[in-house]
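Here's what a typical entry looks like (Plastocyanin):
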Amino acid sequence: MTDDLTRRRYLVGIAATGTGLGLAGCSSGGGGESTDPATDSPTETSSSGGGGDGDWVQTDTVEMNDELAFAPKQIEVEAGTTVTWENVGTIGHSVTAYEDNIPEDATYFASGGFDSEDAAVDAYPDEGNITEGETYEHTFETTGEYEYYCIPHEMNGMVGTVRVI
């Protein structure tokens, strides 16, 4: 059964990667910094497109875009804060916590309202897909770091972290 889950995750990733790479290649040719002109200062942290390790932005809003990125990639919030992920692009995304990379006593989170990472992966894209203009919210009560990813674009580096203080 584990082999089926791994194979399924791999196949979902490959299918999405083929489409995502083509779109990412086309969209990044003109300059990555001008793709988020309407956003606030957090775009400065995420404009490197996958870098930013060590750069923590204090915000409660994360954008998901057609460059297959969470922007900003790393955010810091106080306990009790509700974080909103908004799809500002045309490609569907998910917000899926790495079950083993969240604080021990924390509530699991994934777009679609799943109780486990396996359930989220198994149901995608029928459930948990956040399409253009849609949002997903989660309230963080437990302090610590929460790592998460987009199911179809994980292989493209679409991962993020929420630090709760």
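The longest strand covers residues 81-87.

More examples are in the samples folder.
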